[in-house]
Specification:
alpha+beta; 142 residues
Length: 142
């Protein structure tokens, strides 16, 4: 006679233990990520900028921002984003230029947003883009 071992219940128990281990591991990994996200210092978010449909930079003999905007096709979905970078020495001048550009742009039908950040060099430009579409897709902006 051949002896038959009943080891079926042991395999089932091992499978259940493995499944329980994987579930606990997944839950702990998710909890660790949430705790790290809460404990991490706030990172300064860079607003999402869509690819520009038009880009403006001040050039000698070129049009002023208001004149340039009047040549652009008005579209309610488009946002004019004024992006300024400044060194500590040029901060006041760049902020003033950004304010003047914002005032000039607010007289048009475009939505206006201004982003001023410290950088290694001073620069200012304006980007006309469909940023609202980027924001609707869930990209975080500030």
């Amino acid at each position: 006679m051949i002896a038959r071992g009943d080891a079926g219940w042991q395999l089932i128990l091992a499978d259940l233990a493995l499944i329980l281990f994987l579930l606990v591991l997944a839950a702990l990994a998710g909890q660790t990520l949430r705790e790290e996200a809460q404990a991490a210092p706030a990172i300064q978010a860079i607003p999402a900028l869509a690819p520009s449909q038009a880009l403006y930079r001040e050039t000698p003999g070129g049009p002023q921002l208001g004149e340039w905007l009047s040549r652009q096709t008005a579209d309610v979905r488009a946002t004019l984003t004024i992006v300024a970078h400044h060194t500590p020495e040029d901060a006041a001048a760049i902020w003033e230029r950004a304010r003047r550009w914002s005032d000039a742009a607010s007289e048009t039908d475009f939505a206006v947003r201004v982003i001023v950040r410290r950088g290694q060099t001073s620069d200012i430009y304006a980007s006309l883009a469909y940023d609202d579409a980027v924001e609707r897709r869930g990209v975080a902006t500030s």
